[in-house]
């Protein structure tokens, strides 16, 4: 029998499935629950255990990891008679890896503490590729002791793992991350359209740009998306739209001006309104193409 903590995983989407599988590879027992049967089948095939409900998944778990789209989903799986807080054992550690509002994380930690359950917020950056390769950047909010306990688990999922401060701090840093990523993708998209309309070899141009100061992880990860117009979702526009709402609202609350971020947030919103919400966020290129008079 393994001495490693038993893990319950709630939410087996684009990110959650490969992340849970990396824990299985690291030797952890993982019991999972999600709404899609094919994702449960995938977990079982990888060596995990599929549960029929949240309550069943978490009842014997030492650690509960959640990876769902937004604050409403975190609240739905956490509260109520069938939720995590009513069914996890006392002393369990909840690691919420969803990207949600900082206040939702603060409230969850407070309510969990009343049940004798500990919580850290640990949102990630790196997209589907980072999840598959276990090289995610993980920004954590919570108590030092809980971070220390969670660290071996997080090290099976990511490469850069940092405690950023008290509850909600991980979500604040993730919001800043999403601001930087969105602005970076928008700049890359504008450069692509400019280069193509100028008749430059796009592949060559992006290669040389990525070798200089204009280079970035975003350009490295999304270059092929731009070149091939391949917008299969690694991180959907719908989710980035949600995240831009989080960062603009949080910035307003603390009195921080985000002039460029506000413009990009509107461009993300317009792309979503045009029916592209299910595409990868590199599809911001489509918005620039439309503005430039191209048929998309």
UniProtKB/TrEMBL annotation:
The 6-phosphogluconate dehydrogenase NADP-binding domain, residue ranges: 6-165
EC number(s) reported in the record: 1.1.1.60
InterPro entries: 6-PGluconate_DH-like_C_sf, 6PGD_dom2, 6PGDH_NADP-bd, HIBADH-like_NADP-bd, HIBADH-related, NAD(P)-bd_dom_sf, Tartro_sem_red
Entry keyword set: NAD, Oxidoreductase
One Gene Ontology molecular-function label: 2-hydroxy-3-oxopropionate reductase activity
Every 3-hydroxyisobutyrate dehydrogenase-like NAD-binding domain range: 168-287
Pfam families: NAD_binding_11, NAD_binding_2
NCBIfam families, per database record: tartro_sem_red
Family, per entry: Belongs to the HIBADH-related family.
Name under which the protein is recorded: 2-hydroxy-3-oxopropionate reductase
Organism per entry: Streptomyces bikiniensis
Lineage of origin: Bacteria, Bacillati, Actinomycetota, Actinomycetes, Kitasatosporales
């Amino acid at each position: 029998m393994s001495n490693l903590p038993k893990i319950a995983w709630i939410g087996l989407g684009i990110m959650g499935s490969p992340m849970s599988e990396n824990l299985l590879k690291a030797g952890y027992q993982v019991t999972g629950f999600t709404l899609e049967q094919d994702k449960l089948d995938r977990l079982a095939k990888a060596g995990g255990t599929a549960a029929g409900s949240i309550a069943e998944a978490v009842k014997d778990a030492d650690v509960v990891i959640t990876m769902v789209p937004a604050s409403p989903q975190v609240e739905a799986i956490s509260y109520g008679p069938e939720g995590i807080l009513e069914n996890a054992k006392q002393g369990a550690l909840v690691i919420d890896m969803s990207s949600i509002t900082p206040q939702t994380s603060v409230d969850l930690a407070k309510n969990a503490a009343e049940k004798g359950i500990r919580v850290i917020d640990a949102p990630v950056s790196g997209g589907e590729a980072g999840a598959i390769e276990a090289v995610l950047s993980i920004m954590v909010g919570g108590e030092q002791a809980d971070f220390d306990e969670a660290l071996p688990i997080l090290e099976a999922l990511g490469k850069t793992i940092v405690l950023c401060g008290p509850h909600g701090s991980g979500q604040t840093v993730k919001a800043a991350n999403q601001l930087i990523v969105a602005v970076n993708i928008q700049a890359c998209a504008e450069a692509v359209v400019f280069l193509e309309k100028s008749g430059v070899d796009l592949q060559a141009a992006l290669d040389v740009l990525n070798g200089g100061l204009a280079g970035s992880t975003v350009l490295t990860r999304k270059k092929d998306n731009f070149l091939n117009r391949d917008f299969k979702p690694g991180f959907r526009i719908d989710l980035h739209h949600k995240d831009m709402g989080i960062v603009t609202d949080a910035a307003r609350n603390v009195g921080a001006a985000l002039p460029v971020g506000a413009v990009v947030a509107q461009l993300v919103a317009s792309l979503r309104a045009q029916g592209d919400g299910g595409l990868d966020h590199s599809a911001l290129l489509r918005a620039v193409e439309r503005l430039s008079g191209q048929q998309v």
